[in-house]
Design brief:
Length: 216
């Protein structure tokens, strides 16, 4: 696929970009931050990348110890890709970049591809850690066909991919609506008024959740 980019600088940022700075590479990492995936899953979730380029990027990430392959149970030829410990260290930089990048999204971007599962990382990127409430509550987000939740326990938070039992608050919307709210293109109030967002839970929980997400 051509010569690898090397910035030729003795600098940590340049060294990192030598590994993940090529087009599509961080988007592959984004997918694997959600869950391990097979090649065809990645190809489907990244429309436009093409199988040859995906193969090249996966090979490069493997060579640098960012991802690894695992056998698929019940499929002797199947392989699953997942992040290594080194790859998982990209979570915070990727979330920070995603939060920063939301400021560049415009209304016309909402017509582009969006996946329900991307909201799981967007949710993590939006957290304002200065406003995590000192309560025991669970907020479930039902985005399209996916569900994920924030569990708050005495000022500490954790994230759950998938539905949870007896959430204190549920928020239901389409993926595009969720991203538009995160990008400040749509306010939660307006989305509720128009019916684009449905909320089920006490007003106090709604306030705590939206404040924690920097939306209050």
């Amino acid at each position: 696929m051509g010569v690898r980019r090397d910035y030729g600088q003795f600098c940590g940022l340049a060294g990192g970009l030598n590994v993940v700075g090529e087009r599509w590479t961080l988007l592959i990492v984004r997918e694997l931050l959600i869950s391990p995936m097979r090649f065809n899953n990645l190809l489907e979730n990244l429309p436009g990348i093409g199988p040859n380029l995906l193969t090249d990027r996966l090979r490069m990430l493997s060579e640098h110890g960012v991802i690894e392959q695992l056998p698929v149970e019940g499929d002797s030829r199947g392989r699953m890709y997942r992040l290594t410990g080194k790859g998982a260290e990209l979570r915070e930089p990727v979330l920070a970049l995603a939060k920063w990048g939301m400021g560049f999204l415009a209304e016309e971007d909402s017509k582009k591809a969006v996946r329900d599962e991307w909201g799981f990382l967007a949710l993590q990127a939006m957290i304002d850690h200065d406003h995590v409430p000192d309560v025991d509550e669970t907020y479930e987000f039902r985005v399209g066909d996916s569900s994920y939740a924030i569990e708050v326990r005495g000022g500490e938070i954790s994230f759950v991919l998938g539905p949870v039992e007896t959430p204190d608050l549920t928020i239901t919307c389409a993926a595009g609506v969720f991203v538009r709210i995160g990008a400040r293109l749509l306010t939660p109030f307006d989305a509720i008024v128009t019916g684009d967002v449905k909320v089920d839970g006490p007003a106090e929980s709604i306030h705590r959740c939206t404040r924690m997400l920097g939306l209050a």
